[in-house]
Amino acid sequence: MENRTITVACMCAGALSLLYAAFSSSGIAAAVAAFFFFSSLLIWKYGYIVVPPITGFFGVKPKIGKMELSPAQDALMVQDGGEFVASAYLRLGISQSLADKGQEEVGEYCKAFERAICSIKNTCQISLLLSNLDLHAELEEVKARRSMAEAKLSSLLSQKGARESADAQLLRREIAMWNRLLAKLTGGSRPMSMLFYAITSARGASRHEALSRLSAQVLEVSAALSSSLKVDVQRMRGEQIAQCISLGRRAPANKEEMEDMFF
Question: With pLDDT > 70 as the criterion, what percentage of the chain qualifies?
Fold first, then answer.
């Protein structure tokens, strides 16, 4: 059962308990409603920590469709013949843009990427999902703030002896700051929202052996990519893995769908 399904179920149970408490004036029902609402918040935020021990205690195996997840919900388990294959999904966070770098730095980064790929001993799939980032709302807010500063400056300069005052200087610097920000947002390459992730798999005679081998491979891939590419590597869990599996069948139809999926 997915964390989202459990969260919705807790919220529905909380709403029903709250309605019953409102009509019956039952303190117990109100306490039950509070418990379910708190549980929904806890599972939504920390489900990858809370759900595995609970499902393990009751003997329930977490699944995505017909595919089994590991007890920690950080690996996908598939039985292939008499063996088990465990797969991990690693999200790669890039904190720098090559658009702001010179040709020499871009060349060095490309070489680092090649070295990182060559240093990975096991099979690794790297995927990249891109979408143009809509900055219309941000641009309008910056323009509005600049207009407010210009209006304040114009009002101040209409007063006698205010041209060289400290307030006038501050407003001029503020307007210059908004102009620089506008130039940065509208100039150069278009900003992009991006999902960059890697998949690695390991095979074993048992679930435990497959997961143990996978853990070693995840450490190897994470070390190679984070050190060479200066990326932040985070292991995906639960519904994040489910979203990546769905990307194998189709891409998000629009920017909003992509943002709802991952951001």
Answer: 77
